[in-house]
Amino acid sequence: MNTAAIITKTAEQADNTAELMAEKPSLIGASLPELTDLMATMGLERFRAKQLWGWLYNKGVTDFSAMHTINKPTQQLLAQHVSIARAGVSKNAVSFDNTRKWLVKFADGREVETVYIPDAPRGTLCISSQVGCTLACTFCHTGTQNLVRNLTASEIITQVLMAKDDLHDWGSTSSAEATKTRSADRASPERRAGQDRMSSAEATKKLTNIVFMGMGEPLFNFEHVVRACNLLTDPDGLAFSKRKVTVSTSGVVPKIRELGERTGVNLAVSLHAVRDDLRNEIVPINRKYPIAELLDACRDYVKIVPSRRIMFEYVMLDGVNDSVEDARALVKLLKGIPSKVNLIPFNPWPGSPYTCSSNNRIHAFGRELIAAGIASPIRKTRGQDIMAACGQLKSASERKKGEKVKRV
Ligand code: SF4
Questions:
Q1: How far out from the chain centre does Cα 171 lie?
Q2: Which protein residues touch ligand 1 with a CB less than 6 Å away?
Q3: Which end of the chain lies in a sparser environment, N or C, as judged by fewer CB atoms within 10 Å?
């Protein structure tokens, strides 16, 4: 594949891509076979692709001249024709609890949010898949913003590379790590329990988990999200275990099974209600794909990607979805699905129509689930001082700039 072909392919896959507006096509987001074809087209040795791949995804270099295993003329040729530059960062906020939030700016000026949540021994990066969102979940601040466009796989991956740069988290991916990733993804549940205890090398990594829970509905940007998942979990590249990458959906039922078949990553579902009438209101995509259809797709997912639990997200809205009866109904709905339910205290934003359930109601809800054998951790509220509710930092920035975006 030559550079022109990389551009054409990206254009076919993305709407309005920022890459088309950049001077040179980005290599970030290209697969190893594509890099190999590119080397051949440029008259370079094919083995250079593996070197380039290692510099991009194992070492995280941002300048061809730092690739010391590649000779100077080749470095210069690459620099003339292709780019490995990261997206820009227009805001970088750090909370008192060390949660970090970046407003990432792409070549066309569009911005998304990326959030890092340290919770030793884990460090989770929450990444965006769209600029804005077409859905309008009533508890979600991003739902108040119009969809501008899908992100390309390159723009999704660049959020991870940018975070690793800022966290000084390069240098921990080695061939030993790649072997560990491969075997963890293939191991039996018993062996995996042992492997999940972190190695000392892994324990020093700041970024261990990736969740597609930022701006946008990932399954509405399906091809780019699948491509990004496969790059993230490539054992010779960024080498995240498939068990450490989670794609969250509000319930795009027709794509759920295919996600399992093509990536093998974890699935999270924004459930938030146990009755169709209420979910139609809170998560409007439910009008198209009601709860029963969604849960059938989840049952199939655990057959396609065995030994995994589905993570159900449940935001606690005071007096709306948080009664003990709701909890009992949830237990019934999840029967037969290996599940974990994350109870999320609602993080209010200006103008939001809800308040957060009291601690007592959240704990009473959780007790019903635990009594039924369903893990139901209460998510800690993080980064409140840096507008950590999804979409808030971007809205604040747009208000400041007086920017108006149009629905496309
Ligand atoms: S919860 Fe997700 S799908 Fe719903 S509006 Fe927010 S970003 Fe979009």
A1: 22
A2: 133, 135-137, 140, 142-143, 215-217, 250, 270
A3: C
Q: Are 341 and 330 in contact (CB under 8 A)?
A: yes
Q: What are the tokens at 292?
A: 């029963």
Tell the burial category of 68 from Cβ atoms under 10 Å away from its Cβ (0-12, 13-18, 19+).
Answer: exposed
Q: pTM (2 decimals)?
A: 0.86
Q: Report which protein residue has its CA nearest ligand 1's atom 7.
A: 216
Q: Which atom of ligand 1 is nearest to the CA of 136?
A: 5
Of the candidates 111, 113, 202, 313, the residue annotated as catalytic is: 113
Q: What is the pLDDT of residues 218-231, one digit of tens each?
A: 999 999 999 999 99
390 catalytic? Reply is: yes
Q: Cα torsion at 390, 394, 397, 402 (round to 10°)? A: -120
Condensed to tens digits (0 to 9), the pLDDT of residues 314-356 reads: 999 999 999 999 999 999 999 999 999 999 999 888 888 899 9
Residues 97 and 220 occupy one common structural domain = yes
Same domain, yes or no: 15 and 60: yes
- Nearest-angstrom CA–CA distance, 284 and 277: 10
- Index of the ligand 1 atom closest to the CA of residue 213: 2
CATH code of the domain covering residue 60? 1.10.150.530
For residues 287 and 251, the answer to whether their CB atoms sit within 8 Å is no
> From ligand 1's centre to the CA of 22, what distance in Å?
28
Whether residues 165 and 204 share a domain: the answer is yes
Residue nearest to atom 5 of ligand 1 (CA): 143
Do the domain assignments include residue 406? Answer: no
